[in-house]
Design brief:
Chain B: This is Trafficking protein particle complex subunit. Chain B: It is found in: Endoplasmic reticulum; Golgi apparatus, cis-Golgi network. The complex is a heterodimer of chains A (about 220) and B (about 170). Chain A has about 220 residues and is α+β, with helices and mostly antiparallel strands. In chain A, about 55% of the residues lie in helices and about 15% in strands. Chain A has a single domain (about 20-205), classed as 2-Layer Sandwich (Muramoyl-pentapeptide Carboxypeptidase, domain 2), CATH 3.30.1380. Chain A has helices spanning about 1-15, 20-40, 45-65, 70-95, 105-120, 155-160, 165-175, and strands at about 125-130, 135-140, 180-190, 195-205. Chain A has a 4-stranded antiparallel beta sheet with strand order 1-2-4-3, covered by helices on one side. In chain A, a hairpin with a 4-residue loop joins strand 1 (about 125-130) and strand 2. In chain A, helix 2 (about 20-40) packs parallel to helix 5 (about 105-120) and helix 4 (about 70-95) packs across helix 7 (about 165-175). Chain A is globular, with a radius of gyration of 20 Å. The relative contact order of chain A is 0.13. By secondary structure, chain B is of the alpha+beta class. Chain B has 3 helices and 6 strands, in the order βββαβββαα. In chain B, strands 3-2-1-6-5-4 form a 6-stranded antiparallel beta sheet. In chain B, helix 2 packs antiparallel against helix 3 (about 155-165). Classes of the chains: A alpha+beta (about 220), B alpha+beta (about 170). Chains A and B meet through helix 4 and strand 4 of A and helix 1 and helix 2 of B.
């Protein structure tokens, strides 16, 4: 009992003496996401969204004769045309409150705590890999709202259709809008009997600003 | 009372995608159209001015805080907001997505036009252009239309109307 108390005390003193700026930034981003979600976002009915997206993927599968690769590709392409518009919407909604990103970890946190929170009201866990310079967004079993009501039939499951692949396209194009080139892909999905849904961002590079002809 | 002489939007490919010029007695309005070479020439000059000013601003900014270019991914940038001359001033807003909104006004204004430019971006541009699925998202459709060589521009009557309605009381 006494040891517990003493350990708590040391913890407290350590947090007071050195406040981790990264941690502070995370808290701020979480609050910002919550605030923007409450104040500036229009909400729609979740069931309506799920049914719309479901019928849309269903049509796509029928159109491509259940060719999962083509469906994944098409979903991603559609996501890209959404994302390139969404980035302007994002910046106009968060206004000037958003702090500047100074490293990849910040970028991941901003996408997760503000971006995902604003648009789908779910916050994934952010796993940042320092050595490979990748960011992973991990959704627990039921957290991905795209997957609600969905159970894939066995033949499509075998072909590895990533049902919510549109999200990867959205992230890719949104980052391209702020001059960051990257690869975004699903690496696992709970609908394919994996434990988590993981979306990975890798190979982030900067697109050089364009200069006018003759400069 | 502020007098507005003209309003410009440039995209990240250095192209002018919208321009409108007002006369002092509110009568004549010059617009950017496909075959008005006068406005295209002017747009190029305008972009050149803004481009070189922002280059200069960034150089001085990085010098002033003793910044060394180590982080290629997230460079530290600042934006200039206003140029003033003896007879007019140019207010600009550069968004994170690379769009530049610019208003040319007379020098009588005490207030900065930042709020107005933000409003145009957030309410008018977003509503009529970004979220409109039938507008281009990127006005340069091919490689040859980038780097200031593009010719496409916003042709959206609702956008025109809203911009005019917003700017008219300020004229």
């Amino acid at each position: 009992m006494s040891s517990n108390i003493s350990s708590e005390k040391t913890n407290e003193s350590s947090t007071v003496s050195q406040v981790d700026p990264d941690y502070q930034k995370e808290i701020f981003l979480k609050q910002l996401g919550e605030h923007v979600y409450q104040q500036n976002m229009k909400k729609i009915n979740a069931e309506f969204f799920n049914v719309t997206y479901g019928s849309f993927v269903r049509t796509l599968i029928d159109f491509y004769d259940s060719d999962a690769d083509k469906c994944n590709e098409k979903l991603k392409a559609m996501g890209e045309s959404i994302g390139s518009r969404l980035i302007d919407d994002f910046y106009s909604k968060v206004t000037n409150q958003i702090p500047r990103c100074s490293n990849l970890k910040d970028l991941g946190n901003t996408i997760a705590y503000v971006g995902f929170k604003m648009y789908i009201n779910t916050v994934p866990r952010v796993i940042f890999d320092e050595t490979n310079r990748t960011i992973k967004f991990r959704f627990e079993s039921n957290a991905n709202i795209f997957n609600k009501f969905v159970e894939l039939p066995d033949d499509i499951k075998e072909k590895k259709l990533y049902y919510s692949n549109i999200v990867s396209g959205i992230i890719k194009a949104a980052l391209a809008g702020i001059a960051l080139n990257c690869d975004v892909e699903f690496i696992s999905d709970t609908l394919l009997d994996d434990q988590y849904t993981d979306i990975q961002i890798s190979n982030v590079t900067r697109i050089k600003d364009e200069v006018p002809m003759g400069q | 009372m502020v007098k507005i002489y003209s309003f410009w939007i440039f995209d990240r490919h250095c192209n002018c995608i919208y321009a409108v010029e007002f006369d002092t007695d509110k009568k004549e309005i010059q617009r950017l159209t496909t075959n008005s070479s006068y406005m295209h020439e002017k747009a190029k000059l305008m972009y050149g001015l803004i481009f070189s000013m922002s280059k200069l601003t960034n150089t001085y900014h990085q010098k002033s805080i003793d910044y060394k270019e180590t982080d290629e991914l997230f460079p530290l940038e600042t934006n200039f907001k206003k140029i003033s001359t003896g007879s007019y001033s140019i207010h600009t807003l550069k968004t994170k997505t690379g769009l530049i909104f610019s208003l040319v006004t007379d020098i009588n204004d005490q207030d900065r036009m930042e709020i107005e430019l933000q409003y145009i971006y957030r309410e008018i541009y977003l509503k009529h252009v970004t979220l409109n699925p039938f507008e281009y998202n990127d006005y340069a459709l091919s490689e040859s239309e980038t780097k200031g060589e593009g010719f496409r521009h916003i042709e959206n009557s609702n956008f025109d109307k809203d911009i005019y309605a917003f700017i008219e009381p300020l004229l």
